[in-house]
Amino acid sequence: MINFTDLERKLKKHELDNCYVFCGSDEKLIKQHVKFVTDNVLKSDFMDLNYSKFDGNKADFEAIIESCETMPFMSDKKVVVVYRASFLSDSGGSKTSGDLKSENFQLLNEYLSNPAPHCILIIYYVFSNDREKPSAKIKKLDKKACVIKVDKLRGEVLQKKCMDLFQAAGSKIGKAELTLFCSQVDNNMDIVVNEIEKLVSYAEGRDITKEDILAMMPQKSENDIFNLVDYLSQKNIKRALDILNELIYKGEKIPLILFMIARQFNLLFNIKLGIESGKTKEILAGELRLHPYICEKMISQSMKFTLKGLKRNIELCLDTEKTLKSTSTDNKINMEVFMIKTVM
Fold first, then answer.
1. Which of 104, 161, 176, 267 could covalently link to 61 via disulfide, CB atoms 3.0 to 4.6 Å apart?
2. pTM tops 0.90
C-alpha cells in the first residue's frame, strides 16, 4: 500500500500498473488522484472513446470486465473507473447485498489474476468516516493491484493547496492568515473549496484577514460531532466515547459538546422529515443552510435513525442539559449515561 507521493514518483518513471485501488474518506481528493492517473495514461484527443465509468454500488461486474477486455481506439491504453465500490468494504448488510458484494469481489480477484494488458482499471472506495481503516478485501488486493491510501492533506501540503485555490479565485491571503485558515478548516477538499469560496465572496476583492476567517468559518469540532453521532447510529458506544474523550482532551467543554450533539440530532430530524415529505437534497440544503456535500452526508446519516428515535434523542439532550445545570454530579459521567441511553 502506497501514498500519493509514491504514486506520483512511479508515474513520472512511466511505471504503470494494470489496476489502481484508491481508498480514503475524502472523495474529492480521491477523484483528483484518479484524474491524475487518467491524465497520465490517456491523451485528450481520444479520451471519450477510451474512458468508461461504472457505479460500484450498482454495476454488474461482468459488464465491467467486458469493458476492460474491449480493445482501445487509436490508443495503447484505455481506462475503466469503478467509483464508490462498496463491495470493497467488509460490512455485510442484507443477505442479498452481502452475496452480491462477495460475488463482485470474487470476480475482481479472478480478473486481476490475468488482467487485460491494454486496460488500466481504477477502483475507489470512500470510507464512511475518518476513522475507518482499509478493509481485509483491500489489503488482499494489495498483492495484485497498486493500492493507494488517500490520506487527507496536512501541514505544508495543505497550505500549498489552499494557497493555489485562493490565487485561482483571484484573492490574496497572507502567510499568517493562511496558517490560521488551515488550522481551522476541516481538511476535506469539498469543505476546503466551499470555505475558500465563502471567504473570497465575503472579502469582495480585498485581502483575506484574520477577522474574516474567524467570522466565517465553522468550528473544526463539528466533524467530530458528525462522527460521534454516526457511531451512536451504529450502536458503537465504545467508538463514540473515544471521540467524546478526544473532544474533552482538546479542551471542548461538555455543555458545548452536548449543544453540538443536540444541534446534529435536530438537523437530522428536520432532514428526515423533509425527505419523507418529498423534499430534494437541493431544497433541504437551501432551507437548512448546509453545503450540498454536507447535506448529502447528513441525509445518509438520517436514514440510520427513525423519526421516533431522533425525537427521543433530542428529548434526552434536553434532559441531560437540565441535569448538567441543576446537579453537582460529574458532567463526564452524565454525558456517558446520556450516550448509552441513545443507543438503548
1. 104
2. no
Q: Quote the CA–CA distance of 38 and 40 in Å, as a whole number.
A: 5
CA atoms lying within 13 Å on the CB side of residue 243: 23
Q: Which residue has the cell 480478473?
A: 111
Domain count for the chain: 3
pLDDT for the residue 93? 45
- Summarize pLDDT for 273-326 with one digit per residue, the tens: 999 999 999 999 889 878 777 888 899 999 999 999 999 999 999 999 999 988
Does 135 lie in the same domain as 107?
Answer: yes
Residue 93 has a CB neighbour count (10 Å cut-off) of 12
The residue from 169, 198, 216 where one domain ends is 216
Q: How far apart are CA 284 and CA 269, in angstroms?
A: 12
CATH number, domain with residue 172: 1.10.8
Q: Rounded to an integer, what distance in angstroms lies between the CA atom of residue 68 and that of residue 62?
A: 10
Which residue from 161, 203, 190 is spatially nearest to 178, judged by alpha carbons?
161
How far CA 7 is from CA of 2, 10, 153, 180, in Å, comes to 7, 5, 15, 30
The distance from CA 77 to its chain's CA centroid, rounded to whole angstroms, is: 30
Strands 78-83, 119-126: parallel, antiparallel or unpaired by DSSP? parallel
> What distance in Å separates the CA atoms of residue 269 and residue 155, rounded to the nearest whole number?
36
Domain end call among 169, 185, 216? 216
DSSP state of 208: B
In the sheet where 146-149 sits, what is the strand order? 51-55, 78-83, 119-126, 19-24, 146-149
> What spatial distance separates the first Cα and last Cα of the chain, rounded to whole Å?
39
